[in-house]
Amino acid sequence: MTLAILSALAEEQQGIFEQLEQARRVIHAGREFGLGVWHGQSVVLALSRIGKVAAATTATALIEKFGVERIVFTGVAGGVGDGVQVGDVVVARDFVQHDMDAAPLFPTFEIPLYGQSRFACDPALTAMLLEATGAGVSSASGLFSLNQRIPQVHHGLVASGDRFVSAAVEVQRLQARLRAAGHEALAVEMEGAAVAQVCHDYGIPFAAMRTISDRADDSAHVDFPEFVRTVASRYAQAILAEFMQRL
Ligand code: ADE
User: Fold this and answer.
1) pLDDT tens for residues 119-131?
2) For residue 143, is pLDDT > 60?
3) More confident residue, 139 or 212
4) CATH code of the domain in which 223 resides
């Protein structure tokens, strides 16, 4: 049963490709895929790139071309839920597209012709990822200290859209619109809902985790590449190593 490990950024996968047995690289759809065996499991490493369309293309290629049977996503996100702080990790329960609005033809946020706004992650794969995240965060967070605070693991709704959210007024507006429709999001990012929808279409189990790199507000001044390299990539690798033991 081949597992796809899909990451937003190359830094998160560098260490993993080096550990693959029988490793080979394949170029398809203008993307590089890394095939091999990791922790005794057949895996395909791929990058989503940025935005919903790019992520949907990568997910579709993983399923159609490489025959993956489950997908796990690692990346970073802006924390928007109460108490979701930089350095915390959010494991997605489900996804909504915060920039989908076909009103008045369909309710705001509803994906036209699907009759639903949210796409759920696979409960069994997500339970494994939650466990692995708890274990991975405690081992990785010992390596450095962030804000003098023990990182928290959150589980809930993640909102995706083709915008890097970087203003307090925008976050407030976005949260207010989502709440008015009954959606309480913990984090915002730019790919997850697209991958969740593709996985729904193909019946492929999907789970996702995001390390919080910023609060999506005006003080989202953290050095983004630096955060990914020093914090998020270590979390991703520690969590994925734990995850592989649980598969
Ligand atoms: N990924 C990480 N931070 C983000 C933000 N503030 N908005 C959208 N995607 C993000």
Assistant:
1) 999 999 999 999 9
2) no
3) 212
4) 3.40.50.1580
The protein residue whose alpha carbon is closest to atom 1 in ligand 1 is 77
Q: Which residue has the higher pLDDT, 221 or 31?
A: 31
Q: Any idea which of 7-11, 123-127, 222-226 has the lowest mean pLDDT?
A: 222-226
* Catalytic residue, candidates 12, 110, 189, 242: 12
Q: Which domain holds residue 80?
A: 3-246
Give, as one character, the DSSP assignment of residue 200. H
pLDDT at 146: 58
**Residue for token pair 């990182």:** 151
Please indicate whether residue 110 is annotated as part of the active site. Answer: no
* Range list of β-strands (E), the chain: 3-7, 21-28, 31-38, 41-47, 70-79, 89-97, 118-120, 153-160, 185-189, 206-214
| Whether residue 78 has its Cβ less than 6 Å from ligand 1 | yes
| Nearest one of 51, 161, 72, 75 to 122, comparing CA atoms | 72
Q: Does 224 contact ligand 1 (Cβ within 6 A)?
A: no
User: What value does the mean pLDDT take over residues 37-44?
Assistant: 97
Ligand 1 lined by 9 (C-beta under 6 Å): no
**188 CB less than 6 Å from ligand 1?**
yes
Task: Give the per-residue pLDDT at 25.
Answer: 97
Residue of 52, 73, 76 best suited for mutating to test ligand 1, as the one with most atoms within 8 Å of CB = 76
Q: What is the mean pLDDT of residues 22-40?
A: 97
Terminal CA-CA length for the chain: 10
Q: Which residue intervals of 99-215 are DSSP H helices? A: 123-141, 168-180, 192-202
Domain count, the chain: 1
Active site residue 12: yes
Q: Give the tokens for residue 93.
A: 């329960």
